[in-house]
Amino acid sequence: MTEQMNNGKTALILGATGGIGGAVARGLAARGWRIRALNRDAAEAARREPGFDWVQGDAMQASDVLKAATGVELIVHAVNPPGYRNWGQLVLPMLDSTIAAAKAVGARIVLPGTVYNFGPDVLPDVTEDSPQHPQTRKGAIRVEMERRLKVAAEAGTPVIILRAGDFFGGHGTNSWFSQGIVKPGKPVTSVTNPGRAGIGHQWAYLPDVAETMIRLIERGDALPAFAVYHMRGHWDGDGRQMIGSVERAVGHKVKAKSFPWWILPLAAPFVPLMKELREMRYLWKVPLQMRNDRLLAVLGEEPHTPIDEAVKTSLMALGCLPAR
Q1: What is the DSSP code string of 56-100?
Q2: Are strands 201-205 and 234-236 parallel, antiparallel or unpaired?
Q3: pLDDT digits (tens, 9 = 90+) for 204-261
Q4: Of residues 178, 206, 202, the one with CA closest to residue 192
Q5: In the prediction, which pLDDT does 8 show?
Q6: Cys-Cys with 101: which of 66, 89, 163, 176 at CB 3.0–4.6 Å?
Q7: CA distance linking residue 174 with residue 177, whole number of Å
Q8: How far apart are the first and last CA of the chain?
Q9: Taking a C-beta distance cutoff of 8 angstroms, is the pair 167, 112 a contact?
């Protein structure tokens, strides 16, 4: 990045090697931000992404986060415990470290939010202010994360939260799209559908999520201290549109199979993500659609890549289609 491109601002990205963290970091860098990123193997991370200022450290250590945050205007909290292990025990302490660092240096916090905060009682139409009565462990933790951020905002640390549907896009494999719908690294001959026929589902293309977050960041000074917004993303009204888009991307019909929900309890002890997926089954039984009126009022539009382009690009990134 040249000096002419620099806007003089620095962002600390926690989770820069992940899907959403990496996408936001690259988007901010393209707009002139200096990107500082904390990683437990900074040398290896720098080899893969040499454009960032990598700092050796662990997001689970408050002192490491505070040291990395020195001089930054923004902290993007997009980090998860490695392999989703001990998620329930580690997520809140990690967030506390971010809040403490942001308070100390006067930075804004940005959090990628989810739909897990909401239970079936408020479905199908959900707004930013809908009551949050989660029925899952992960949902309860998400509610607590947002509660702590709201307390921080009321005490003077500004916060932006962008909630979105199920992510897809990029090279990440911890998603329903890459672990449920298709198989990374293999040509698409069949797809696995976690949902039911006729039940709508909300998807969020990761580059669109990142772009939306960045546009909110750019308007940060005009936002409330605790600013929460919903993305509409891609609404699959009958549960078949995502599969249809996959078929158009590969150029032929594919066999659609039902997701084997019965296997999750058996796999959960060995694959922590499987336990998380099992808890979220209710989101495939009942449609959930988040309204984006508040977001549109601020941005005027929601960044939106056409579904066929988004799916084709996602399949190429996962190695399911030849790259262009």
Answers
A1: E--TT-HHHHHHHTTT-SEEEE----GGGTTHHHHHHHHHHHHHH
A2: antiparallel
A3: 999 999 999 999 999 999 999 999 999 999 999 888 899 999 999 999 999 988 887 7
A4: 178
A5: 87
A6: 66
A7: 8
A8: 26
A9: no
Contact 292, 302 (CB under 8 A): yes
What separation in angstroms does the CA of 306 have from each of 158, 159, 207, 218?
32, 29, 12, 24
Q: Do strands 74-77 and 10-14 pair parallel, antiparallel, or not at all (unpaired)?
A: parallel
Buried b vs exposed e over 247-274: b needs ≥16 C-beta within 10 Å? bebbeeebebeebeeeebeeebeeeebb
Percent of the chain's residues with pLDDT above 70:
91
pLDDT of 4 over the 60 cut: no
The whole-chain average pLDDT of the chain stands at 89
Q: Can you tell me whether residue 300 is helix, strand or coil?
A: coil
Instruction: For strands 201-205 and 166-168, give the pairing.
Output: parallel
Q: What is the pLDDT of residue 3?
A: 43
Quick one: average pLDDT of 151-166?
97
The residues facing 205 across adjacent strands are 168
Q: Output the pTM of the full model.
A: 0.92
Render pLDDT for 180-209 as a digit per residue (tens, 0 to 9): 788 888 999 999 888 888 888 999 999 999
Count Cα atoms within 13 angstroms, Cβ side, for 250. 20
Residue partners of 32: CB distance under 8 A and separation at least 6: 1, 5, 6, 7, 9
Q: Which residues sit opposite 86 in a β-bridge?
A: none
Whether residue 64 contacts residue 38, with contact meaning beta carbons closer than 8 Å, is answered with yes
Q: Which comes out higher in pLDDT, residue 165 or 80? A: 165
Predicted pLDDT of residue 122: 86
Is residue 258 a contact partner of residue 196, using CB atoms and an 8 Å limit? no
How far from 241 is each of 165, 187, 306, 312, CA to CA, in Å? 15, 20, 12, 14
